[in-house]
Specification:
Blueprint: H1 2-19, E1 32-35, H2 42-59, E2 66-70, H3 76-89, E3 94-98, H4 104-113, E4 119-122, E5 131-137, H5 146-155, E6 172-176, H6 179-189, H7 195-198, E7 201-205, H8 215-221, E8 225-229, H9 250-259, E9 263-267, E10 274-277, H10 286-300, E11 306-310, H11 316-324, E12 328-331, H12 335-342, E13 347-352, E14 356-359, H13 368-378, H14 394-404, E15 410-416, H15 420-432, E16 437-438, E17 441-447, E18 452-456, E19 461-466, E20 473-479, H16 482-498
Parallel strand pairs: 2-3, 2-4, 3-6, 7-8, 7-9, 11-12, 11-13
Antiparallel strand pairs: 1-5, 4-5, 9-10, 13-14, 15-20, 16-17, 17-18, 18-19, 19-20
Helix pairs in contact: 2-3, 2-5, 10-13, 10-14
Amino acid sequence: MIHVVLRWWVKKVATMKANSNSSKITFGTDGWRGIIADDFTFSNVRKVTRAIASYIETAYTKNRPVLVAYDTRFLAEQFALTAAEVLADLGWTVVKITKRDCPTPVIAYNARHLNSAGALMFTASHNPAPYCGIKYIPDYAGPATLEITDTIVANLESASNAPPSQNSTVGSISSFDPKPDYINFLYSLLDVEKIPNARLKVKYDALYSTSCGYLDEVLQHCHCELENFHTWRDVLFGGGMPEPMEEQLQQLVEAVRRDKADLGLATDGDGDRFAVIDEQGKVLTPNSVLLVLTLHLMKNKHQTGAIFRTVATTHLLDNLAAKYGLQLLETPVGFKYIGGKMRQTQVLIGGEESGGLSISGHIPEKDGILVNMLVAEARLPPVRPANAWEGKPLSVLVKEAIASAGGPRYERRLDLHLAPPHKIAILHSYSKNPPSKVAGIRVTQIGTKDGVKLYLEEGSWVLLRPSGTEPLMRVYIETNSPEKLTQIASAIQQAIHQLQPVSA
């Protein structure tokens, strides 16, 4: 069995290295990620930790704690301990490391709650098993801004990768449990008195992730009839990926259909992204969940504020905003941009098509645990009259939300493995010499906020954007019919493959 696992790991790493852009340490939309034992090494972890420490020394006093957390990946806790030892050696007097693997939104909440100097989170989120990563979460509990990550990257030039001094006794490292305070805060955002009365039948797939012991505990607290899957640590994630996409959720889908459950729920590897399955066994798109929860927050919870979406997220949110007189603003891809807006203005909801979402009153960080519980809450109607608990099926709520937003709309994301010169050629061609039509549909506008976005007639659009965390060119499409979706996807792929890569 060990030999089989090793062969799988070696083959997987070889494939990823072949598709990798560079071994250089760079920070993408959500920190730095690399392949374990290739570029993500203990030596580089020490180097990155010192670069982060150089930043936090300019922003905080050393009597504030620094938090360190990790997900369920191979060696994640050892990487975290290495970072904690470096911080203690540099004179941070209180370094608190989590007792067990921990979801990103949980450590983010504690970074604010404990008045910390920020947190270091070791995770590669939804990436394949051979990856690990590190991100710095400031004390405001959201993703680090571009200014902060640029400073950290600049600090790498002078950062040492040497082991800590063996004689240092300046700082202290202790363990702590971040769960109780986060769970109590989560309950303050939910109607935990109303949900139990519904006696929801829920299937939950942890996907071997950090949300185990969190989301299932909250569901049990709300008296849901619960069945769990994959709630133990497996650093290979069952041979799949800790990404809550349909191909990873077939066992969950089958369980929902078999037992006629009300909901199927899952998260990604570090618990910041969500997956929701309706009572028919259909895996909902994050865009559909965004629409349902936007209406739930407005109509049932009587909240208001601006709607923020990334450039790759459905424009049906624009229609809802216009319909209800709310402000709609578009950001580049990356929840750090939405999180930044949440710290500046009153936001009803902020979300992205990849499964990141947060709401007014919560931390400015995506939280798959909260989102899954809000969906459970949304299945219940307002108390009108009292004791009216026969909620609508989730599939009906989705149809009503899409219709209210002027849908349906049809979406697709293409992940194209292309060499860097080819990606450069695509962005240059589409920004400098964009087509007048795509699949016979006229291009009306070009956007370059993040990648290149082609706005087409009848509300269709296409976004071409290189991934910030994986060696991919992502192509996002939204249009008003399945036929157009197929035609646009075919036309874009054909045009991309015909482009000549830029010479080195």
